[in-house]
Task: structure prediction
Amino acid sequence: MEIQDDAYELQEIDILNGEDVTIQSADFDVSGQPLEDTRNIIVTNNINIESGGILTLSDIAFEDGRIEVDKINKPFITVKSGGRLILSSGTTFKNFINNEGAALVYVEEGGELVMYGTTIEGCVSKEGSCAIDFYGENFVMNGVNRIYDNVNSANKKANIYIKEGKSIGISGVMYNNLLMPSE
Result:
């Protein structure tokens, strides 16, 4: 893959036991609002959150014009048992493609996912998967979360899959039929 001069290539990141990592937009205006970033992020690998690791994404957008996804063939973020992913206010994901499973987030048995004001749209996953595949222990959505227009490779709605027997705690506003099981 050719990397443009104004782009960053995101290599594989492993968040290990005891690590608490925050990735956020670095540029803010005087009122504290994130500035637009014209640089692209080329996703060629994924992020793994191991047991005891915590990753927080805040005020960061992976969107059209900013991110070029080259069919990474695995979820962008995998949360292992005992790991925790926090998608905080202002975090946006758009147009992730994965022909091998969940398009964006895969939470293994024992993992945790917390969302506060996140947008996920236009992702395409393998048939039988969704933008988010949740098999974990704790899934909490607070505030306004928008998860919509995500499909699988059969072009069927595929926003969030929650394994039978698991649950989600929701406090806030939901848009566009968030909970659509994979088919």
Q: What stands out?
A: The mean pLDDT is 77.
